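re the bet — no i am not wrong, look at it urself. input seq straight from the record:
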Amino acid sequence: MRLLFRLPIVLSCLLSACGEAQGPVEHGLPWQIQVEDGGSRVFGISLGTTTLGEAAASLGPRYDIALFGLPELPPSLEAFYREVSLSGFTGKLILTLALPEQTLQAIRGRSPGNRVLAEGRERRWKVADQDLVTVRGAPVVAISYIPMVNLEEDVVISRFGEPSRRLVAPDGGIHWLYPDQGLDLMLDPEGRELLQYVAPVDFGKLLAPLERGGPAPAKGGQ
């Protein structure tokens, strides 16, 4: 990930006096995470409950949908916003959607086309028009957010607090882990940050590949 824009003045304004003058925005900022009974709500999305259709009602209808994975394994389903504004922060947003494996396999079987991603064998499948209604009814179970502004360490600590753990990624980035909030915040010294949200009860599923040294799973738009 390479940072396209560094806006420390704008970010400072948003995080301090400018943001306060405009009043608090409920659940619109990356650190505004509501946690209850093992679940969480961020950006107005209750993970595991809010459907893509419901999320799009507030985020907007301009998103791409695709399946990702290896041909021999069950695919993952994602909706990707190339640019979305959240309480003054602009960035990319990827919503991971949950459907039964059999349904995902069937949607992939009806795909009108696919292509191999740059990494190697992994593929990206288009979703057929006939499956869009089903996809819009799928709940959002994870969110990946890539802000256009650069988040410095002191800003992260002031807004998210100290992480319970830090993991160094193979590419040199550092995963700041907040299991109680269901958040993995990856600070990239040479590029943009990646924030990944899951329900705290599902944090182990997010942590497992990181401990194995795997790459960040965000794929949308490739």
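see?? Helices lie at 8-15, 17-21, 52-59, 101-109, 132-136, 153-160, 203-211. told u. also The mean pLDDT is 84. so pay up
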